[in-house]
Design a protein that fits this description.
Blueprint lengths: L2 E2 L3 H6 L17 E8 L9 E3 L2 H11 L10 E4 L6 E4 L4 H9 L2 E8 L7 H6 L11 H10 L10 H8 L12 E3 L15 E2 L8 E2 L5 H14 L6 H24 L15 H12 L1 H4 L3 E8 L8 H26 L5 E7 L19 E6 L8 E3 L22 E2 H12 L6 H4 L16
Parallel strand pairs: 2-10, 2-11, 6-13, 6-14, 7-8, 7-10
Antiparallel strand pairs: 1-9, 3-5, 4-5, 6-12, 11-12
């Protein structure tokens, strides 16, 4: 039976507009962006917690049964203002990176077409994202920066479109997903390659025998057969291109020395290990700009949030720490920036059964040698139910930094000119500060 060891081919079948218009352009040093999507809505209220006496007491009194004990928090102090916070106790590796200057927190980021106040929200005078607290809608909006309808492209894909000249001549796509299909990765010209971590790119079932080789030739002939049906022809073309890309990647990975960095074997670890291995082949692939998509699911914590989040963070922390160490091993830590996304945060006030409900603004992590780490960027919300940052009375924070600003900061570091940023992030012109300063 014909099987695919990677689902690069399968993922590509649904994308019939595969076009690689790689125009010639100037060369530049290698840079990569790595997205880590926390699916389900990560409760970032327990990711980073105020650690001064008054701030912690306020947190503990409202969070009640979901409050982490102050003694368990991993202390960090921001460079700006010397404000003390504590990270979740399952994040010691990220604490070390924060204190070492390779990790930053970007506070209260969310889907936001324009600045919104509590009064505007209450009076219905603000332009709000459609289906604001819906998982699928918010996942899509985080990835597309399109808040009033569906988009066929994501902001990472559009970023790759703008920077095509930097990858001129490369036969392998600039975007790789190791976590399935993601709209974030789709551009108008750029389409991603999808790979199962640890698998061998290409087709399985062909082992070099005479019969295997004959079957392979027949399969390749079928892909070039003129059926006269445009849908079949387009599908065959996509399959042929994906097979070619699989072969290119397999050849590039072949014979590479094993990474010495040890990755955890569960959750996010194998994905980030695969990303590091592909980065190891960057010269052979001929890419000067690469974007990767990874994910960790399970953050929809309507019940049993404390043990669930403890388990998830115990996977997130060693995986991200190992990945940073791998970039150091490869000598590219200054050239690789990793960042988190998630559907939304969760209500500050607990719900029933030890869980929380869907909310809005969320805190995110940015990691890498080019990060101005050891600090918090953006504006931390006032943790008051019914306060100026709450859309209601249970702690759904109105974002103070938009997805557009967050993504534009990453894209500008990646090489996108300031004049091109609004073509990628359509709402960026609605904000007086289009980019933040968390990257060098």
């Amino acid at each position: 039976m014909l099987t695919a060891a990677s689902f690069g081919m399968t993922a590509a079948l649904g994308r019939l507009n595969m076009i690689h218009a790689l125009a010639a352009g100037p060369s530049s040093g290698y840079q990569a962006l790595v997205c880590i999507f926390l699916f389900g809505g990560n409760d970032s209220n327990n990711l980073i917690v105020p650690n001064d006496t008054a701030g912690y007491q306020n947190y503990a009194s409202i969070r009640e049964n979901l409050a982490l004990s102050q003694g368990s928090l991993l202390p960090i102090v921001t460079k700006t203002g010397k404000v003390p916070y504590g990270l979740h106790p399952q994040l010691p590796g990220l604490q070390a990176l924060f204190n070492g200057g390779q990790l930053a927190v970007v506070a209260n980021v969310g889907t936001l077409a324009q600045p919104v106040t509590r009064a505007q929200y209450k009076h219905g005078s603000a332009t709000l994202p459609v289906n604001l607290f819906s998982h699928s809608d918010q996942q899509g909006q985080w990835q597309t920066a399109q808040f009033d309808g569906y988009s066929h492209t994501g902001w990472a894909g559009r970023t790759a479109d703008v920077l095509q000249s930097l990858n001129a001549g490369a036969q392998y796509p600039p975007i790789t997903s190791v976590a399935g299909g993601a709209i974030l990765c789709n551009g108008a010209q750029t389409q991603p390659y999808a790979l199962i971590p640890g698998s061998s790119p290409g087709l399985s079932g062909y082992y070099g025998s005479t019969a295997d080789n004959a079957r392979l030739v027949s399969f390749q002939q079928l892909l070039t057969f003129d059926t006269g049906v445009s849908l079949v022809q387009d599908t065959s073309a996509v399959m042929s291109q994906s097979l070619a890309q699989s072969q290119i990647l397999a050849s590039a990975l072949k014979g590479l020395p094993s990474l010495q960095t040890q990755f955890p074997t569960t959750g996010l670890g194998p994905q980030l290990q695969q990303v590091a291995q592909i980065m190891q082949a960057r010269s052979t692939l001929g890419l000067q700009r690469q974007i990767f998509f990874c994910s960790l699911g399970g953050f929809d914590t309507h019940t049993s949030q404390l043990p669930t989040q403890q388990n998830l963070y115990s996977q997130l922390d060693p995986a991200m720490s190992a990945f940073y160490n791998a970039t150091v091993e490869l000598g590219i830590q200054q050239q690789v920036t990793s960042f988190t996304l998630s559907d939304f945060s969760r209500t500050f006030q607990p719900g029933t059964n030890g869980g929380t409900d869907h909310a809005w603004g969320s805190h995110h992590l940015v990691m890498g040698g080019a990060v101005r780490g050891g600090d918090l960027y953006g504006t931390f919300p006032q943790l008051a139910l019914g306060g100026p940052d709450d859309v209601g009375t249970n702690g759904r924070w109105i974002p103070t930094t938009s997805v557009d600003q967050y993504g534009a900061t990453l894209a500008k570091w990646f090489g996108v000119a300031s004049t091109d940023l609004p073509t990628i992030f359509p709402n960026l012109t609605n904000f007086t500060t289009p980019t933040l300063s968390f990257l060098v």
